């Protein structure tokens, strides 16, 4: 990688502040802070606009699963763009990459999840899933089944509906959200379970939360339960063992559709293309996917629906009932060509096998940070791990926001060559899935050193 960068960093920073609005940005600090501008990338590394090399500890945004600089994906996109960049997916118009990719995906899905609706990303995949559920229930003459059950600290997207079913407290303050038919259960976060409660009892309690809510609302009024297998953006919350399977069973018992949001947990992050069946032994009614689906090379999402649901809509009784949901760029041929090239890499290089082998090492090494005074919890699995900082280890006290613990650690890590993701007092690591043990050691040692320094600075 050339260090001779042809970028004018000052000019770019000025234009960035003046013209580019970023997602999740603190608007009040935009003018005074220096943006991080990332200009090039290769393998597991990115280079900022000054040419500084940084180990990408966050995988872009949990998405560059196959790593950067994959010519195979770029070539597949270019070839498809030249052959046919775009055509409408509406009605019954198809294109070869979308058809082939849908077929190939269903070789990896659990049970009878055999029907794929492509979207433009994770939010639109989840939005489509929730709209599909309402279509399904209305179609079958169950218009009262409207209520959606979700969890605090969930993250499902940034459309009006998906933001409403999300439950991260920090995101819920400043914009209006739908509340009437959406219900948030407490997060199944073992770190915050009542003092002295066993994991088994905690699991019982969290499963009971779901059952109680269904009974309170009345099963005839509940449409679906939506859950990330591990809650990703809410702080890599790992529910107690058996929780996913038991909540799935509760949904089946009360005829509530179970949506497994695998936007993060899919495509190898937990060592399998889809984690629902292989890691948690569940067959959901619907899976949503995005991010690693194309390793972030181009936007794409997918809602994957079971035959049990879908086949009831496609017989003649359904004539005239239009599934009025979709996007100009649904099933985009260039995105689907990228998706197939990405899947080729996954299969040929056995990326999931690598994650199953090296992921536990990553988790274990990060786990050693628990000896630091400021670290209250290290949690996660394989290549999604979170370090929770605390002001008092015994009492598990959340550090005051003005300490800006996450941001300080992020800055220290960056100085030392690692990109980590700060979320309040949490620091998340979710690197590209190709990282090796040496790179893991580098990441852990930089993070350790950074936390030690921030602890000193705050003393
Ligand atoms: N679902 C989950 C679990 C996510 O983590 C995200 C994004 O982080 C989304 C949905 C939304 O995906 P996107 O940002 O591609 O719209």
From TrEMBL:
PANTHER family: AMINOTRANSFERASE, AMINOTRANSFERASE CLASS-III
Names of required cofactors: pyridoxal 5'-phosphate
Database matches in CDD domains: OAT_like
Keywords: Aminotransferase, Pyridoxal phosphate, Transferase
Protein name per its UniProtKB record: Adenosylmethionine-8-amino-7-oxononanoate aminotransferase
Gene3D superfamilies: Aspartate Aminotransferase, domain 1, Type I PLP-dependent aspartate aminotransferase-like (Major domain)
Annotated signal peptide: none
InterPro entries recorded: Aminotrans_3, Aminotrans_3_PPA_site, PyrdxlP-dep_Trfase, PyrdxlP-dep_Trfase_major, PyrdxlP-dep_Trfase_small
Keyword Transferase appears in the UniProt entry: yes
Pfam families: Aminotran_3
Domain of life: Bacteria
UniProt organism field: Dongia mobilis
GO molecular function terms attached to this record: pyridoxal phosphate binding; transaminase activity
Family membership: Belongs to the class-III pyridoxal-phosphate-dependent aminotransferase family.
